[in-house]
Amino acid sequence: MLQFQKTAISAEDEAYLHLQREIRLGHYAPGQRLVPDVVATEIGTSRMPVRGALRRLASEGLVEIRANRGAVVRGLNHQEMLEVFEMRSVLEGLAMRNAVLHMNAEHVRRLTNMLEQLDQGSSDYLDWTSAHREFHEYLCSFCQQPRLLRQISELHSVVEPYMRLWAAQPGRVLRVRESHQELIDALQTRDPARCEAAMRQHVLNTVPALQAFLEKKG
């Protein structure tokens, strides 16, 4: 069997996906240094692809390149957190406005099933945060606007570590079914303007509780 050597691009992609996943899952904490030699050893590659991956992550806001410390996992202050959610509300509102034009009853039924699993904490999902993100990304995917979807995905990745901490807190009570059912109800009207407004409000509704949790934690 022929064996093909990894290209620099595929090695960089591997390093990028590894680092992005570890940051999203909260395994690399805000402020933690990301040493290229250490990361390269973890995934069995050289430093150069890791350095390229770190530059990509820096452009997405997940990593900060500092003069004296190298690459550091970037945290968000409360104002930046608000900014990300405001951006999400606008972009996901636009995505839902355009998505409804390309969705049928079967797509809405799938969202309803996903909501059932999200509400029940079904073992079919890795965790609540992943299930929540999957619901949003499936809904938005019907907008058929790849550039818009990439922007939304990057914003989700930036806040995901904080969402995980929030979702895992003892005694957490979320309006999972009610708040997401409002999105499904809006889709069933097939009114683009109503869909956009529903998603905008849905995203912004998360902000007060999340910020209160972060203030209490920090």
TrEMBL record:
| Domain HTH gntR-type, chain residue ranges per copy | 9-76
Q: What Pfam families does the annotation carry? A: FCD, GntR
Q: Does the keyword Transcription apply?
A: yes
Source species, domain of life = Bacteria
Give the record's keywords alphabetically.
DNA-binding, Transcription, Transcription regulation
Keyword Repeat, does the record have it? no
Q: Which InterPro entries match?
A: GntR_C (IPR011711), TF_FadR/GntR_C (IPR008920), Tscrpt_reg_HTH_GntR (IPR000524), WH-like_DNA-bd_sf (IPR036388), WH_DNA-bd_sf (IPR036390)
Q: Quote the PANTHER family the UniProt record gives.
A: GLUCONATE OPERON TRANSCRIPTIONAL REPRESSOR (PTHR43537:SF24), TRANSCRIPTIONAL REGULATOR, GNTR FAMILY (PTHR43537)
Q: What is this protein called?
A: HTH gntR-type domain-containing protein
Q: Which organism is it from?
A: Achromobacter piechaudii
Q: What is the lineage of its organism?
A: Bacteria, Pseudomonadati, Pseudomonadota, Betaproteobacteria, Burkholderiales
